[in-house]
UniProtKB/TrEMBL annotation:
Parts of the chain that traverse the membrane: 12-34, 64-84, 142-161, 167-185, 250-275, 287-308
GO molecular function, one term: ABC-type oligopeptide transporter activity
Pfam families in UniProt: ABC_membrane, ABC_tran
Source organism (scientific name): Xanthomarina gelatinilytica
SMART domains registered for this protein in UniProt: AAA
Gene3D superfamilies given in the database record: ABC transporter type 1, transmembrane domain, P-loop containing nucleotide triphosphate hydrolases
Superkingdom of origin: Bacteria
Localisation: Cell membrane
Keyword terms: ATP-binding, Cell membrane, Membrane, Nucleotide-binding, Transmembrane, Transmembrane helix, Transport
GO CC, one annotated term: plasma membrane
Membrane topology of the entry: Multi-pass membrane protein
Keyword presence, Nucleotide-binding: yes
Protein name in the entry: ABC transporter, transmembrane region:ABC transporter
Length: 584
């Protein structure tokens, strides 16, 4: 139960609803127990009349009528209270589920990129949905059924013992056995249903993958193989389902068997006591009703135990993530006003999961309003430089200064708010084009959205869609070309009007003519903004104030376009190669 202590703060938060829920549960059980008592006394009245102990039929009828009215009244009150019991305790479990999901989601947001690299998305999703769902079962149903069982058991055993102590002892003998069997069955059901769940998610992710990659499957003629894979996987999944159904099928027969045994004991032992004149017929009737009433709550003891164990395991998985402290934190109290001077002084950075030293002592200085271009072979460390400026990672050695201050002393939100970043793989959400652009500035007007799209040379494409800016993208909507995606991603960065603009090979899928136009607009837009353009193309970088050439984490050349094309080296070779390609 150690892991579940995490939930105590939520129990405290909703203490009044829980206390009221518990009180309602107790009162509803008291009313429920009126029924066996009233039925028992009705049977006794009828029996006394049959035995000739009472001769006035009118009195018997009156008493029976009163009992019936009481039974209906008690049932009505129990029903109403049961409704409110669920409305309090089950509602609290939903509130806590909601709070816990929000807590986990908020925590996910502050965890570093490394966390996302080390953990699979499916696992993150599972902990926030499946695991929280299991914890909710503990918070709601488990607590509600436990109170139910304790109350019902305490009151009814008290009633029963007062009327027939020996019969009570005999009657409750099968109940712990029932509880134990249900516990074992629940555990087995849980084990098998977890396997079924794993296969189902396996089946759905593999199906989803084959639908997403349908063009590759068709192009390579892999339909038969993928169909066979699907068939094999669904066959195993079916077998696992059947295994689960087999254990499930034991559940109710087991309960019926044990209830039957308890009833037989009541009839046999109670019958003997009745013959000896120790108890009345009404007591036997009451006991039969009590036994049937107690069976389900007692069975839930086993079920609840298994729920608590599952919740404990799930909360442990949740706590594992909640305990991770974000490495990159904000240390500044006040927001920082970023101007955009950037300086790298002998910066080193190693990705500790792969041990790759991506930057091996990088130094450059970029004044605000200027443009730096970074060019170099693939894997030379270009994107890493941009990631360090956005503080997605913290440097290992050296100094990274923004406005002459160490980057980790700046207000983190101010820093990120002042950056417009266009990543290598443009990611667009399954939403409208307008909202995808407005992601950069939530309160942007339609005019601003259109202007940004015009600067990014994508406005005409968007107007070509029948729904224009309201066109939905992604799974629910249309698929854009690589170049269109890149340009929408550029519009998203432009609309933010940031102090620092970072373009990570963001024009690679755009033809040179469009690239030319975008760069021309950028020159106007980038007035006063610090811009860094990472590219493999000389055409993208030639107008930059400063160009650096990276190779294996080192700066091997630097200067401007003019000076670099006149110096032997990587830049000049690339320039000549790309020049001859355009002339061909
Ligand atoms: N998240 C990461 N975890 C571990 N290693 C990484 C990570 N990102 C990059 N690397 C490694 O660091 C080195 C530099 O990568 P980086 O992405 O900065 O290069 P790049 O010059 O931008 O390459 P490209 O032009 O292909 O985008 C590469 O060897 C790469 O494999």
């Amino acid at each position: 139960m150690k892991e579940l202590q995490h939930l105590n703060k939520y129990f405290f938060k909703y203490k009044w609803q829980i206390i009221i829920g518990i009180l309602i549960t107790i009162v509803s059980k008291i009313f429920l127990l009126f029924t066996p008592e009233l039925i028992g006394s009705s049977i006794d009245v009828v029996n006394e009349y049959l035995q000739g102990e009472v001769s006035d039929i009118a009195t018997v009828k009156k008493e029976l009528l009163i009992n019936i009215v009481y039974i209906i009244g008690a049932a009505l009150i129990t029903g109403i209270l049961t409704f409110f019991m669920r409305q309090t305790i089950i509602n609290v479990s939903r509130y806590i589920e909601y709070d816990l999901k929000n807590e986990i989601y908020k925590h996910y947001q502050v965890l570093p990129l490394k966390f996302y690299k080390n953990n699979r998305t499916g696992d993150l999703m599972n902990r926030i949905s499946e695991d929280v769902g299991r914890v909710r079962m503990y918070v709601g149903p488990a607590i509600m059924y436990s109170i139910n069982t304790i109350t019902l058991f305490a009151i009814s055993i008290g009633f029963m013992y007062k009327q027939a102590p020996l019969l009570t002892l005999y009657t409750i003998i099968p109940l712990p056995i029932l509880s134990f069997i249900i516990y074992k069955l629940s555990k087995e059901i849980h084990k098998r249903s977890t396997i079924v769940q794993q296969y189902l998610s396996h089946l759905s992710s593999s199906t989803q993958e084959s639908f997403s990659g349908i063009s590759i499957i068709k192009a390579y003629g892999l339909e038969t193989i993928t169909s066979k894979n699907f068939h094999d996987l669904s066959e195993t999944s079916k077998q696992k389902q059947l295994n689960l159904v087999k254990v499930n099928a034991f559940f109710f027969p087991m309960m019926i068997l044990l209830i039957g045994i308890s009833n037989l004991i009541v009839i046999y032992v109670g019958g003997l006591q009745y013959i000896h004149g120790d108890i009345s017929l009404g007591v036997i009737t009451k006991f039969i009703i009590y036994v049937n009433m107690l069976t389900w709550p007692v069975a839930t003891v086993g079920w609840v135990t298994s729920i608590v164990q599952q919740a404990e395991a799930s909360q442990k998985r949740i706590n594992e993530f909640l305990k991770i402290t974000p490495e990159i934190t904000n240390t500044a109290q006040e927001p920082s006003n970023i101007i955009g001077d950037i300086e790298f002084k002998n910066v080193h950075y190693t990705y500790n999961d792969t041990n790759i030293e991506a930057l091996k002592g990088i130094s450059f200085k970029l004044e605000h309003g200027k443009t730096l271009a970074i060019i170099g072979k693939t894997g030379s460390g270009k994107s890493t430089i941009l990631d360090l400026i956005g503080r997605l990672y913290d440097i290992d050695k050296g100094e990274l200064l923004i406005d002459q201050k160490p980057i980790d002393k700046l207000h983190l939100t101010s820093l990120r708010d002042s950056i417009g970043y266009v990543p290598q793989d443009a990611f667009l959400f399954s939403d409208t084009i307008k909202n995808n652009i407005k992601f950069g500035k939530e309160d942007a007007t339609d005019q601003e959205v259109i202007q940004a799209a015009k600067y990014a040379q994508v406005h005409n494409n968007i107007m070509g869609f029948s729904k224009g800016y309201d066109t939905v993208l992604g799974e629910r909507g249309i698929t854009l070309s690589g170049g269109q995606k890149q340009r929408i991603s550029i519009a998203r960065a432009i609309i933010k009007d940031p102090k620092i603009l970072l373009f990570d090979d963001s024009l690679s899928a755009v033809d040179t003519e469009t690239e030319e136009q975008i760069l021309k607009h950028l020159q106007d837009l980038a007035q006063g903004k610090t811009t860094i353009i990472v590219s493999h193309r000389v055409s993208s970088v030639k107008n930059a104030d400063q160009i650096i050439v990276l190779d294996d984490g080192n700066i091997v050349q630097s200067g401007n376009h003019e000076s670099l094309i006149n110096t032997d080296g990587y830049y000049k070779n690339l320039y000549l190669k790309q020049l001859s390609e355009t002339n061909q």
